[in-house]
């Protein structure tokens, strides 16, 4: 089963500072090649923001994460630390908490200064309060979650950020683990990466009847196929079953 066509924004806003990072410039090149309208902003403050929900959900901005935004935060109980590759998601899950968690219009902000974001992580080795210091979970190492405010796989064909992060953890010769949760299935570019078993991918699954509430996300069989592919490629995997929905037809396929 081929992966679902990947999401592309109608418009991509990019700041001058983001364009100075090779990673940001590469995102713009990929978006332009996919037919997205590119808007080069005159200053680093985000402007030309869309007024409607529909326009915002089809807009992506490539920006530089400020020092406060790129500083990892404790994220108990799921992992030691959270860091962000991006904020926002192109899917339309009706129960998604992002709508109430992120300020401003629901555009996707992808961070161009990935080297600076990843440079924040090494000093945190062994410093977390969830897995680092737990006798029962010490084998998981220091854990870093990167899907708190986005589904990073949803935008990976444009950002390439997950691949960089997976390589970074694969080369980090220490007890660490990158982890993310996804509803998307564009895993093919991740399969051959030198992940070193240090990235754990969890797929968000539910009864098929829940698909009606998950607009824009790949259907369950595609997620299962993607789960199988990454497991065969040696990634540690997991499943998230949430939210629990009172669906009368939950057994139907
Ligand atoms: S895929 Fe995840 S992050 Fe994206 S809208 Fe759905 S619940 Fe929210």
Walkthrough of the structure:
- It contains eight helices and 13 strands.
- The strands form three sheets. A six-stranded mixed beta sheet has the order 4-5-9-10-11-13. A five-stranded mixed beta sheet has the order 2-1-3-8-6. It has a two-stranded antiparallel ribbon with strand order 7-12.
- The longest helix is centred in the last third of the chain and has 13 residues.
- The site of iron/sulfur cluster (SF4) has 8 residues, from loops.
What key phrases describe this protein's structure?
binds iron/sulfur cluster; 5-stranded mixed β-sheet; alpha/beta; Rossmann fold; 8 helices; globular
Can you describe this structure in just a few lines?
By secondary structure, the chain is an alpha/beta fold.
Average predicted confidence as pLDDT: 94
The tally of strands reads 13
Element string (H = helix, E = strand):
EHHEHEEEEEHEHEHHEEEHE
Q: What fraction of residues sit in β-strands?
A: 15-25%
Q: Return the CATH architecture.
A: 3-Layer(aba) Sandwich
Organism: Teichococcus wenyumeiae
Protein name: Radical SAM protein
GO molecular function, one term: S-adenosyl-L-methionine binding
Pfam families: SPL (PF20903)
